[in-house]
User: What shape does this take?
Amino acid sequence: MSDSRSTGIPLKVRNLRKSYDGRVVLQSMDLDIAAGEIFVLMGPSGSGKSVFLRHLIGLEAPDSGEILVGGERVGPDIDQTRHRLAMVFQGGGLLNSLTVEENVGLYLREHRLKASEEINRIVLEKLALVRLGSDDAGKYPSELSGGMRKRVAIARALVIEPQLILYDEPTSELDPLVSLTIGREIVNLNRRIGATSVVVTHHVDLAMGIADRIAFLSEGAIVALGTPEQIRSSPVPLVHQFLNAEFKEA
Ligand SMILES: Nc1ncnc2c1ncn2[C@@H]1O[C@H](COP(=O)(O)OP(=O)(O)OP(=O)(O)O)[C@@H](O)[C@H]1O
Ligand SMILES: [Mg+2]
Assistant: This one.
């Protein structure tokens, strides 16, 4: 790992449990993610992937167990500014009353981190990375396609040059070419600023192409963990079925 990757922060999860209305969604998860790692989380719909991500940035409190981000325990008062945590939400999570440009620049403006012209420049630069132009900058989320909203959400996360970035289904709703660009951008960001990246995806090629390691979640438990090669040859039936699922007429 080169020095340029040194700004990422490690993640430690210990005995994490969460139930909703008596139904267990995360059962005793333990996980260590290294600083600068690209860690992919896969698993069936409803297996707890989004719930897990929400715990990592303190949006949900566990029933028991703990999460350490950069050595600091995640809780309601974790200092998000100090650690520069970013999340790309499954549905985008944009504010409907703000334009694309305002959504992407919101964090920098609110924290008065840069001069206004500088913010405009950064916003356009990040939008260009996800192939959105200045014509899109003035639009409102309701005027965008689902894939465009997802790309705006990614641009918004990139703006803070995060040390830890969580992506929930970054390529769902995107066409194959834009998916490829997003995959490359996840890797570039990781190389450029060393951001520790946790990527939830159903997209097998993306996972295999970008991951340092992959974890497979089933009913709130990790059933397989390893490098893409190890996961490809996993003996766990669910993993095998998932990776080799193909439509065939009966
Ligand atoms: N706030 C909540 N209250 C009650 N149940 C919840 C809540 N959030 C999630 N769940 C339940 O937890 C389970 C896991 O949900 P989660 O959103 O993590 O699934 P997922 O693995 O991200 O699935 P998908 O691939 O479809 O996005 C689901 O059964 C869901 O209904
Ligand atoms: Mg989800």
The two ends are 48 Å apart (CA to CA).
